[in-house]
Write a structure and sequence with these properties.
The structure holds two protein chains of two kinds.
Chain A (H helix, E strand, L loop, with lengths): L1 H5 L1 H10 L9 H23 L10 H13 L1 H19 L12 H113 L5 H29 L7 E3 L1 H11 L1 H6 L3 E5 L7 E3 L1 H19 L8 E8 L4 E8 L27 H11 L3 E6 L5 E8 L5
Chain B lengths: L5 E5 L3 H13 L3 E5 L2 H6 L7 E6 L7 H12 L3 E5 L4 H9 L4 E4 L4 H33 L3 H11 L4 H8 L3 H15 L4 H12 L2
Parallel strand pairs in B: 1-2, 1-3, 3-4, 4-5
The chains are: A alpha+beta, B alpha/beta.
Chain lengths: 411, 202
């Protein structure tokens, strides 16, 4: 491909070589045309002789020369011209049946001149035509070559594109895996340290309790020892609750941000962010967003996280669904209590009606790789905003999630 | 040397330490408290019978890494307690010879059972060590020739063969042999073989 583009001259020469395929390649054939046409012309002059048109009949030979050039090329034309001259001299110019020229020299000269002229014209015409043909062929070859090159470049681009998409898909899957593993690791670290922190005072309480029991049941009972153990148990119990207090403080360390937020914009942002996942699962998205929606007061990052979580859940629930459209519908509007309501419907696997409320429980999951925290966290975020998040079974399939948030003016 | 069994408690949490001290004293144990394995290793270790109750998770040095060090230095059986145990952790501890692996908060009876088992093991080890020490002492009282004869007898040779090997008369071998039996206080050939065995692989 690349060679064709870089070295066009070579191919042009090659094209020119094959530009006159209709001209016979062998001299016998070329001369054959000349002999045949001259003989035909001679026969014609004999026929025309009866019409008494004088020497005009001799111009038939000019036609023979031209025809020879057409059919057999320049060489054939020359041969035809020579043969015609000899034939005219021999058969038609006195003395007849001899090649001598006595009285008719001017006529003969005129004939030769006309013959040579027709020969020259024919040759010129032939050359012009073959040059034209050559040009056309060269042009065609070039166009063909360029088209081919373009097609190949196109194919390469398409392959590259497919490859890039595959890589992107693999990359996003890897990212998701990483995120999950990271989350699990962070959780397990956190759990380990919380467990250790709480189990220490619990162990002390249990041991002190056993010691106190022993002190009270022995004879005589040691009330002083039992009292000491009990007062330490109280201290350790307070310590355990202090640990829980600290963990809560740690998790809520940042005061929540509250800014006016347009939910339609937030939905558009999150849909754009989830584009890859949505396309990957071949899910069609329909949005019916109410125009002129008043803003809510919210933490934009947290609320986007909630929306992202709901969309991801919907997409996950529809992955692998066959035999019905995989469609997600998002609507915004106001409810009767003057709250902004977002509903998100999917046509996914759904959840049994009995389990609809359990999906918001911590560690409840129906996903293979899930840890069952997403909806629990989402609900607590929404409730922190003074809103509500609930779900209902979809009709006939899937799930509907409802997210209600108070207006900014009401908070 | 104390006769009361001693329990070494190693835990970085003062309340757990104090509670264990109270409970174990109630059950008649001598208790020594340390806040870290390093502190214990630096202290003069108790010679008396006992065991170690050690928390496995310490900031800095990991409890499990200290286990081998504790075992080599003190040779006391170890009971591990932990605030957050994992299965790999407990497997590793048990493989390395821990008596028990308890997750806090544990039942006091579980700890007392583990301590009883640990003390039993410690006692068995001590008595076997005492026996071996006595054997060594007796073996040391043998002459060079008697030791040679004892080795060959224990290897199952007949008096005739021993005499040929040592280039002495069979009667002489018999005399050496009866002296060996007397000095080692062996009641018969079988016991002598056992004694040689224990001396050979202490």
């Amino acid at each position: 491909m690349s060679r064709d583009i870089e070295d066009p001259t070579m191919s042009d020469e090659r094209a020119a070589t094959f530009s006159l395929p209709q001209v016979p390649r062998f001299w016998i054939a070329r001369w054959g045309w000349a002999v045949a046409f001259t003989a035909a012309a001679l026969a014609a002059t004999f026929l025309l002789h009866g019409l008494e048109i004088g020497r005009a009949e001799l111009f038939v030979f000019c036609l023979a020369v031209m025809a020879s050039v057409w059919s057999g090329g320049i060489e054939a034309g020359i041969v035809a011209a020579v043969l015609s001259t000899l034939a005219v001299d021999y058969f038609w110019l006195p003395p007849i049946y001899s090649l001598n020229l006595d009285t008719e020299l001017p006529a003969f000269a005129a004939f030769v001149l006309v013959g040579l002229m027709s020969l020259g014209l024919s040759i010129q015409r032939l050359r012009a035509e073959s040059a034209l043909r050559r040009e056309r062929n060269t042009l065609e070859a070039r166009v063909r070559r360029r088209t081919l090159a373009l097609e190949r470049a196109n194919d390469a681009l398409r392959a590259e594109n497919a490859e890039r998409q595959r890589t992107e898909q693999a990359l996003s899957e890897m990212e998701a895996d990483f995120a999950r593993v990271h989350r699990l690791m962070t959780m397990s670290e956190l759990t380990a340290s919380i467990a250790h922190e709480i189990n220490q005072p619990l162990a002390a309480i249990v041991i002190n309790g056993a010691a106190a029991l022993r002190s009270l049941t022995q004879h005589p009972p040691d009330f002083a020892e039992a009292g000491e153990a009990l007062s330490e148990m109280v201290c350790d119990a307070n310590r355990a609750s202090g640990v829980i207090e600290r963990v809560r403080a740690l998790l809520n360390s940042d005061a929540p941000e509250r800014v006016p937020l347009d939910l339609n914009d937030a939905i558009a942002d999150v849909l754009a962010l989830s584009g890859r996942a949505i396309e990957g699962a071949a899910v069609s998205v329909l949005t019916e967003l109410a125009a002129g929606l008043p803003p809510v007061s919210a933490d934009p990052v947290l609320l986007r996280q909630v929306l992202m979580n709901l969309i991801t859940n919907a997409v996950e629930a529809m992955r692998g669904i066959e035999g019905r459209p995989r469609a997600m519908t998002m609507r915004t509007g106001c409810d009767r209590r003057n709250r902004i309501l977002i509903t998100l419907e999917d046509t996914g696997i759904g959840v049994d009606a009995a389990d609809v409320d359990r999906i918001f429980d911590r560690f409840y999951t129906t996903k293979a790789g899930g840890i069952g925290m997403g909806l629990a966290i989402s609900r607590s975020i929404v409730e922190d905003h003074g809103g509500a998040l609930w779900a209902s079974p979809g009709v006939p399939h899937g799930m509907v999630f409802h997210l209600a948030l108070p207006l900014e003016a009401d908070t | 040397m104390t006769t009361e069994p001693g329990v070494v408690v190693i835990d970085d949490d003062p309340s757990v330490r104090k509670a264990l001290d109270r409970l174990l004293r109630k059950f008649g144990f001598q208790v020594e408290l340390f806040s870290s394995p390093t502190q214990f290793l630096e202290s003069r270790r108790p010679d008396g019978p006992g065991c170690i109750v050690c928390d496995i998770r310490f900031s800095g040095k990991n409890g499990l890494d200290l286990q081998s060090e504790l075992v080599t230095v003190s040779r006391l059986p170890i009971i591990f307690i932990t605030g957050y145990g994992t299965i790999p952790m407990s497997v590793r501890a048990m493989k390395a010879g821990a008596v028990e692996f308890l997750t806090k908060p544990f039942r006091d009876q579980d700890l007392l059972d583990a301590i009883a088992l640990a003390l039993e093991r410690d006692g068995a080890r001590r008595s076997s060590e005492t026996q071996i020490a006595g054997l060594r002492e007796r073996f040391a009282s043998l002459t060079a020739r008697e030791r040679q004869v004892m080795g060959l007898v224990a290897a199952g040779r007949l008096n005739k063969q021993i005499a040929a090997e040592l280039g002495v008369s069979e009667v002489t071998v018999k005399i050496h042999r009866s002296r060996v039996m007397h000095k080692m206080r062996a009641s018969g050939l079988a016991e002598l073989v056992r004694m040689a065995d224990r001396l050979g692989s202490p």
